[in-house]
Amino acid sequence: MAQTPSNAQSNTASPDAAAQLDIFRRMLRVERNDDATRAQIRRGRITAPYYSARGQEVIPSTMSHLMTDEDVICTIYRGIHDMVAKDMPLRPLWAEICGRVDGTCKGKGGPMHLTHPETGVMVTTGIVGSSMPIANGFGWASLLDGSKRVTVAYFGDGASNIGAFHEAMNLASVWRLPVIFVCQNNGFAEHTRYENGTSVDLISKRAIGYGMPGYTVDGNDPFDMYAHAHVAIERARNGEGPTLLECKTFRFMGHVFGDDDSYMTKEEKAAAMAIDPLPRFRQKLVDSGVATEEQLAELQTKIEAEVQDAIDFAFNSAPPPLEELRRDVFAEEIPA
Amino acid sequence: MAQTPSNAQSNTASPDAAAQLDIFRRMLRVERNDDATRAQIRRGRITAPYYSARGQEVIPSTMSHLMTDEDVICTIYRGIHDMVAKDMPLRPLWAEICGRVDGTCKGKGGPMHLTHPETGVMVTTGIVGSSMPIANGFGWASLLDGSKRVTVAYFGDGASNIGAFHEAMNLASVWRLPVIFVCQNNGFAEHTRYENGTSVDLISKRAIGYGMPGYTVDGNDPFDMYAHAHVAIERARNGEGPTLLECKTFRFMGHVFGDDDSYMTKEEKAAAMAIDPLPRFRQKLVDSGVATEEQLAELQTKIEAEVQDAIDFAFNSAPPPLEELRRDVFAEEIPA
Amino acid sequence: MSTDTMEMLKMTGQQAVSAALFEAMENDPKVLVFGEDVADREGGGVMGTTRGLSSKFGDLRVRSTPIAEQSIMGAAIGAAMAGYKPVAEIMLMNFITVAMDMIVNHAAKLRFMSGGQSQVPITIRTLTGAGWQTAGQHSDHYEGWFAHTAGIKVVAPATPADYKGLLLSAIQDPDPVLFIENSRTMFVPGEIAPDQGPIPLGKARIAQEGSDVTLVTYSGMVANCLAAATHLAGAGISAEVIDLRTLSPWDKDTVLASVEKTGRAIVVHEAVRHFGPGAEIAATIQEDLFGKLKAPVRRLGAPYCAVPFAKVLEDAFLVQPMDIAEAAKELRARG
Amino acid sequence: MSTDTMEMLKMTGQQAVSAALFEAMENDPKVLVFGEDVADREGGGVMGTTRGLSSKFGDLRVRSTPIAEQSIMGAAIGAAMAGYKPVAEIMLMNFITVAMDMIVNHAAKLRFMSGGQSQVPITIRTLTGAGWQTAGQHSDHYEGWFAHTAGIKVVAPATPADYKGLLLSAIQDPDPVLFIENSRTMFVPGEIAPDQGPIPLGKARIAQEGSDVTLVTYSGMVANCLAAATHLAGAGISAEVIDLRTLSPWDKDTVLASVEKTGRAIVVHEAVRHFGPGAEIAATIQEDLFGKLKAPVRRLGAPYCAVPFAKVLEDAFLVQPMDIAEAAKELRARG
Ligand SMILES: Cc1ncc(C[n+]2csc(CCOP(=O)(O)OP(=O)(O)O)c2C)c(N)n1
Ligand SMILES: Cc1ncc(C[n+]2csc(CCOP(=O)(O)OP(=O)(O)O)c2C)c(N)n1
Ligand SMILES: [Mg+2]
Ligand SMILES: [Mg+2]
């Protein structure tokens, strides 16, 4: 795909075999975890709203492969794939989704506010657009620290129409911040089709208005993602400033668990699912000799065990005590 | 000037003699009124903050010349020139600035919130960026009414960096609203130089991100202004949607009355004032035979008399009664 | 046929809102409905509340918007000033935080700042309420902010009849109205007359008569107060439940008359108690009925924290019927 | 040399704020200052409050921003979570309306929602206050909104010493603090010790002792209360003036002790009275001191309207010393 607006150069870096395998590992971890989450919801064991990112695995898996452990992300309600791809441990993730005291946020944040600084998951927001201005703060801190840390802000196509997007893009550019704005363009904002809310054919064109490079990338293709993510990360790391990556993809499960998809045609959904990036990439790995069927099956078994372990851990964890309402409001506990 | 980004066509309409004279009349009315306002402030007779637009006369004078009486504007704290150019009567304007009961807002709004629906001055806001989203509502109303009414949203270069700008531009484009976004780019946002707050060399380039035509215009040249304003207004009137006009200009009096200009060099200010659009255009009118010296002197006398009459009227008007605190909060008066 | 003799319908608050929107759009061509996903192309709203409107009234009067609450409110304000009556939806109350300038600095002030020349007859519909584990950014009750803002009315119904009647009034009101839908109670069916008409803003409703203590409340907490009243009745305490319906301006007369009668008052809301809207009501009662109260005015609201995710915490966050009943017993015990 | 024996300096609140910023940046390399026009290239702030900081501490720690309050607050939050202590300036309080999401949904909640993993030690400095004829969109007091928001502290000093001492504490506080500067009083000189250090948040100051009535206030209205107290002294009424200094959390102990002593209380603020912050204080006093009050708790605040432009209206909008004195006399007359 890689439609590039006029201000962008072409990008050619390509993942080697190990990189491909690592990207696939992350994708599979995301997908297996998502599958298990939906299964638990169907069984009535999880009651929270769930925004599946099934279909969008390539984007954070490729980004995360290229990020170091110091690099951080700011993400959104539809962001569990971003966290799992960033290798956030599954036990505290599941415990959080189940509202348990061993959750990464002690059960107080839930799936929309998962946080795990150790793996660089700094903010998860439920407010459309709000990941971006906050990401700039981490970018500024990198400059102040004199560190090479890169910050990735994830957001959706619909979010590109809200004020926070604009303000964040402009500030990042004026201040040359090491931030990468990764728009996961799945073609819909809740029930609204891209073109009914967004005034430009390519979101990447908006980068022109910020004097920033912008690329439209096939977000379902790890090679195209890799090439562009590589350029963006290098740019940020070298102090050359921010980049906007518009990564085209599709969400297979609608906006929120239970969504009836009435606002899209069966055909377009079927067409999107027919090119499901996960089996496609898996096949490619086997065909190109990067991995054997056995290797991949083993990987899958390992991941499934990790997921099952996390589920068991979560459901064995206790609900948080009521005192938690008085804790973490401020650093100092609120007296009873 | 007319640097046009890639998505814009070239514009060639030109004002005839009558049009030139009318534009000049509006400019002179703006300038004489501004001069008188500053004189009254210096004499201590007006205490409100005043944001002079001296130097920016061409922009609203040309726009207003091309607007009909039905067309409306939404403007900002630095917007008295926009109103005077729109032929708002000076008596209620002055009474308002002086906080008198005969003011257009009964003395309750003051210079930052002047309103005069009869001449199409619908909103004056003191919040940077806020003229634009409201202008869209008037644009929507034109579509609903099936009318040809055009709405102009005035704002500054600094305002192009705030979220409201972005949201308004996007909505106007998606809905094809008959709104013209007129950015009066005077090179500064309070004390901040354009390039220190704005990430793109031409604000008109931002139009690309909204699938909207955008032009950078010499806002001090009535001919360049006319050509582009004409296209934008025709476009809006014909139901073809919004346009962004970036009009380059300079504010001669700093941000607010009393500003010491320490953030700019003496040279750049002198250079800008050396090409003061008012005497330049005046000279051109005479040189090209559009008007004689006598005609223009007579025009000036007439305008000065109008201004003086307004000043006298204002200072003879009473302050508003205290009951006004309970009126106009809601349609129904608040009981004492 | 008068309302009394007509057979009552069963309807949820959501259906009542939908009915009001249909009726208002039908009766007044100036009424507009817009917001994220509200048109039928987008399924008529994420909750389906506006379903059918765009098909009936056309895409120009019923419009889905981009995700851009400032521009939603701005368009509402401009269209209102141009003579329309826009009903703008902010999907959830927390999202109103990105549109505060438009509402507070503009919608609420333009009539005053223009000396009466401008009017902004908009209705802002928004949904909120804890209880669905949507956590810290999807369930807040911020009505206190708007009650404190001069120039905007705040309406928060509790019954299907009120959802319809108050929304009809809000839409026709010449000034901005914030119309708050509560997510716990809005989908619960209740009785409503088939011809339910406008119900005046600013008038409270005595949801239950009583003589020992007055529970002053609104929105989702009316249900909890009624449950508490039932419990209290069993304990020999007669509670009067006042559903304010409109928080600003609130019906001081009805509240003061009731508290003068009972001598005891508890103000109950879902919003955080600290500097919450209940404080205004408590402060007014003590001022106007000084010396006539048998006990101090109590306030119950959410604790000072964000809405928590875990169900057990969320339940503790919300004022429960037993919290109210206990407070009433305590007051009764004091005098 | 201790403070007592040191010669006091004369300084305005603005100079005190400037001094605190210099000291905080000097002592802690993690402190950052940013906002519109704050760097010296832009004149060190429109009011000059931050003048000299960028020249001394460099352009990376002291930064002018575009006009984009959401992105100002966002950058503050991110930098704070990354270990810095940003002091972000929102030029005037009305402009905070475009940054409410960042402050309310994020800064105030991130510690809680993350179960204590995140911390957001930011200070938001902002200026406001009527009296300069800047009218409806440049002089509002919205502190009530933030007092009602769990997870953010609200500080509003009234003297140069407090401007410095409280700002030093706000900057070092591990949580978000809204620091409100009042435009009528901030440029008035007053006494301050040359080595004025941090003053703890949440502790009120008895600005004047008295025995007949307690005036509870903060920010710009401290001056008006002191003027009222002087007038009242002439009329034989001894007023105690409590300057809260921190509105949230407010110093309940000091207020209750005073009102228990005087038996009468008036809460005074510049914000609109209706659903204003004074209600919380009044409601608390009546609850905790029920039966011990000689008169109802009174509240004085701005009328229910936008800040008007005309001087005569603006004067009437603001609570004046004589309004306070009259209210005190009335209370005294009641019992
Ligand atoms: C400010 C704000 N407005 C509205 C919403 C409700 N909402 C939640 S997700 C969503 C759609 C976002 O679409 P997009 O940015 O494309 O992300 P996606 O969900 O497709 O990943 C909306 C409107 C919100 N969370 N925040
Ligand atoms: C939201 C908001 N932030 C800050 C301000 C303070 N302010 C008033 S004018 C101004 C500069 C605006 O610059 P620009 O848009 O270029 O317009 P100009 O004044 O140059 O005409 C600023 C920052 C404001 N009024 N509103
Ligand atoms: Mg999307
Ligand atoms: Mg400017």
Descriptive report:
The complex is a heterotetramer, with two copies of chain A (336 residues) and two copies of chain C (335 residues). The model of chain A is unreliable at 1-8 (pLDDT under 50). Helix content of chain A is 41%, strand content 11%. Chain A has a six-stranded parallel beta sheet with strand order 2-1-3-4-8-7, with helices on both faces. A two-stranded antiparallel ribbon of chain A has the order 5-6. Chain A has 336 residues and is α/β, with parallel strands linked by helices. The radius of gyration of chain A is 19 Å and the shape is globular. Chain C folds into two domains: 9-192, Thiamin diphosphate (ThDP)-binding fold, Pyr/PP domains (Rossmann fold, 3-Layer(aba) Sandwich); 205-333, 3-Layer(aba) Sandwich (Rossmann fold), CATH 3.40.50. In chain C, α7 (160-172) links the parallel β6 and β7. Chain C has helices spanning 13-27, 53-57, 69-81, 100-107, 110-113, 143-147, 160-172, 221-234, 252-262, 278-288, 311-317, 321-334, and strands spanning 9-12, 31-35, 62-64, 85-92, 123-128, 153-155, 177-182, 189-192, 205-208, 213-217, 239-243, 246-248, 265-272, 298-302. Chain C is of the alpha/beta class and 335 residues long. Chain C is globular, with a radius of gyration of 20 Å. Chains A and D meet through β2, α5 and α6 of A and α3, α4 and α5 of D. The complex binds thiamine diphosphate (2 copies) and magnesium ion (2 copies). One magnesium ion (MG) is lined by residues 156-158, 186, 188-189 of chain A.
Briefly say what this structure is.
Helices cover 41% and strands 11% of the residues of chain A.
Name its key features:
heterotetramer, A: 336 residues, alpha/beta, Rossmann fold, six-stranded parallel sheet, 11 helices, globular, disordered N terminus, C: 335 residues, seven-stranded mixed sheet, five-stranded mixed sheet, 36% helix, binds thiamine diphosphate, binds magnesium ion
